[in-house]
Amino acid sequence: MSDQPHNPLLHATSGAWDQLIAAVNPPAMLVAIESMMGTALRERMSADDVWQETLLHAWRDRAKCEWRGTPAFRRWLIEVARHRIHDLADTQAAQKRGSGREVLFTDRDVSSGSQTDDHYAGPCEQTTPGRAAADRETADMLL
């Protein structure tokens, strides 16, 4: 028997991942993400875009997150989002300097090693455009 607490991130199924993400309150996460984005960045992309990239990176790096409960997981997701925003701002600054690079997310590697049918392949099913719109409406009501 191990002294380590069970980490629900390590072998998350689709349903388990959805429950973990729902527990961190995605509409509130969108509000937090938007508040971290600068005006120029908000003109070029939405908080939804950053949230999706956050979920992709969180899924990819989930084994690096030491499970300490939902509040700590939410803080970790905010840090992942902060890094995504920082990377976008760097790319945008490079574009202004004339590098000609488009402001796009390019790190789409969400693989985590071998995958089997009983493990969720990633957070791609998490948010649909309709769900994002509903989350945005909820977030607007929270403001």
Descriptive overview:
This protein is an all-alpha fold and 143 residues long. It has one domain (14-106, 123-142). The protein is built from 6 helices and no strands. The protein has helices at residues 14-23, 26-36, 39-44, 47-60, 70-99, 129-142. 24% of the residues are buried. Mean pLDDT is 77; it is low at 105-121.
Number of strands: 0
Order of helices and strands: HHHHHH
Q: What is the strand content?
A: under 5%
Helix and strand content put the structural class at mainly alpha
The N- to C-terminal Cα distance equals 46 Å
Unreliable spans are 105-121
Radius of gyration: 16 Å
Q: Based on CA inertia axes, which overall geometry fits?
A: globular
Number of domains: 1
Tell me the major beta sheet. none
Q: What is the overall pLDDT average? A: 77
Number of H- or I-type helical stretches: 6
The share of residues in helices is: 55-70%
List keywords for this structure.
143 residues, mainly alpha, 6 helices
SSE order and pairing:
Blueprint: H1 14-23, H2 26-36, H3 39-44, H4 47-60, H5 70-99, H6 129-142
Helix pairs in contact: 2-4, 2-5, 2-6, 4-5
What would a concise description of this structure say?
By secondary structure, this protein is mainly α.
